[in-house]
Amino acid sequence: MPREDSTYTSSPPKPDQDPNRRATCTTCGLTVKRPSDLPRHMLLHAKNKEDFMFQCPFPECGHKTLQKSNLETHIRIHTNARPLQCPVIFSDGLRCNFTSSDPSSLHRHKKRKHEDGE
Ligand SMILES: [Zn+2]
Ligand SMILES: [Zn+2]
Ligand SMILES: [Zn+2]
Fold first, then answer.
1. Are 114 and 90 in contact (CB under 8 A)?
2. CA pair distance 44, 25, nearest whole angstrom
3. Number of H helices and number of E strands within the chain?
4. pLDDT in tens, 48-106
5. Which ligand minimizes its atom distance to the CA of 87?
6. Which ligand has the minimum distance to the alpha carbon of residue 32?
7. What ligand has the least distance to the C-alpha of 75?
8. Rg of the chain (C-alpha set)
């Protein structure tokens, strides 16, 4: 009565391991090495690709990319190389030394320290 199920021994085909199986973009003819790469490539042709893009949170920049990791790299341009410095020059000619990578905290700083509030 107990018998090995013979269907269990035959392994299913693995299309990803077939080196001849490549995927070709029907729009531009580009061949990608792995079929799993094609959907990401197709986003480049999508009419509504803006919907898939990640936008730089710095409003004056406008940079957009399809890959989140690219955006994280891009944001370092703002946060490391170009920290925002308070533009206020005091009456003795010295510049306020407050810096921040966050535009909104610089804005708060200016309001608090340099503007006469109520
Ligand atoms: Zn293409
Ligand atoms: Zn940016
Ligand atoms: Zn300041």
1. no
2. 11
3. 3, 6
4. 877 878 999 988 888 998 888 999 888 887 776 557 889 999 889 998 988 887 889 99
5. 3
6. 1
7. 2
8. 27
| DSSP state, residue 56 | -
Q: How many angstroms is it from 99 CA to the middle of ligand 3?
A: 8
CB of 109 within 8 A of CB of 100? yes
Alpha helices by DSSP H, listed for the chain, are 38-42, 68-76, 103-114
Q: Are 22 and 35 a contacting pair, CB within 8 Å? A: yes
The pair of three-digit structure tokens given for residue 18, joined into one six-digit string: 């077939």
Q: State the distance from the centre of ligand 1 to the C-alpha of 25, rounded, in angstroms.
A: 5
Instruction: For residues 108 and 48, give the distance between their C-alpha atoms in angstroms, rounded to a whole number.
Output: 36
Q: What is the mean pLDDT of the chain?
A: 80
Ligand nearest to the CA of 29: 1
Distance from the alpha carbon of residue 85 to the mean position of ligand 3, in angstroms? 8
Shortest-distance ligand to the CA of residue 58: 2
State in Å: Cα 75 to ligand 3 middle: 23
Element (H, E) at 99: strand 99-100
